[in-house]
Amino acid sequence: MNSRQRRGVILLVLSVLCALGAFAGVLAVIRDVQTKVGPELTAYRLKDDIAPYKTLTDDQFERISMPERWLSKNAVTNLAAIRGKIAVTRLKAGSLLQSDMIVDRPALARGQQEIAILIDAATGVAGKITPGASVNIYATFEGEDDKTPDQSRLIVEKAKVIDVGKLTALDPDARDRTRRTAEAVPITFALDTADAQRVAYAESFATHVRLALVAPGGGTDAAPGDRRYVLDEELQEPSR
Questions:
Q1: What is the mean pLDDT of residues 189-205?
Q2: d(Cα 55, Cα 53) in Å, to the nearest integer?
Q3: Could you tell me where the DSSP H helices lie in 38-57?
Q4: C-beta of residue 207 within 8 angstroms of C-beta of residue 142
Q5: Rounded to whole angstroms, how far apart are CA atoms 202 and 199?
Q6: pTM above 0.85?
Q7: HSE on the CB side for 212, CA within 13 Å?
């Protein structure tokens, strides 16, 4: 073997050693990254904003993968966790879904049933009454004839709200701009049979049904005389 061949062999060996060194370096970097990043887990990101107290559905989220070490302990990794849940605050698009963003949808107690009615949005219901709230339900009835005065009645006290639907146009094709009621909100209550019948009757025959929000833990049962109001009777009372 002459000197030129020996130099070639030496260069070849050096090239192999450099290649092995580079490969070992790449493996070391990969191991280091894996050590720092760790395995990936499934997480869920919001596609759009979600309003508070709205029931959550699978199509509101997109599935992504993230390193386990970058996810908080309360990150939702399985969409089964949102079944029967509602948003506790306004959720922003692009946010990762966390378990502290959601709460259980208010449930029915024994002997209760769900009943939903449309409430005029003009009364201030929209955005102010939420699932879990307690409300008094008032209905206004017209007199049967000219001699019978109109009256307002408290038909259900402290009704439990379990769901608030989306703002709905009562008649999207209507051209009459004089309509007082253009939009309504479907409100679902948890009521016993008697109260559910009162609400159903009021929705069918009352001229207006309104809700009054009851402060948490506050208020007492209305006296029998306070459950019915007629303006004519008040005007006829002697001044004190």
A1: 92
A2: 7
A3: none
A4: yes
A5: 5
A6: no
A7: 13
Q: Are 132 and 52 in contact (CB under 8 A)?
A: no
Tell me the range of 25-34, 35-44, 92-101, 119-128 where mean pLDDT is highest: 92-101
**Which are the contacts of 106, defined by CB distance < 8 A and separation ≥ 6?**
131, 132, 160, 161, 162, 163, 190
The per-residue pLDDT for 126 is 57
Q: How far apart are CA 124 and CA 105, in angstroms?
A: 23
pLDDT mean over 38-50: 86
Q: Residue range 117-126: average pLDDT? A: 73
Element housing 21 (H / E):
helix 3-37
Cα–Cα distance between 1 and 12 in angstroms, integer? 15
For residue 88, give every residue at least 6 positions away whose Cβ sits within 8 Å of its Cβ, in sequence order, or none.
Answer: 52, 53, 100, 101, 102, 103
Classify residue 89 by its DSSP letter: S
Which domains can be identified in the chain, with CATH numbers?
40-104 (3.90.1210.10), 113-234 (no CATH)
- Please tell me the predicted confidence (pLDDT) of residue 148: 74
Q: What is the rounded CA–CA span in Å between residue 115 and residue 187?
A: 8
The residue type at 118: L
Answer whether 163's CB lies under 8 Å from 105's CB.
yes
Provide the token pair at 104: 């259980």
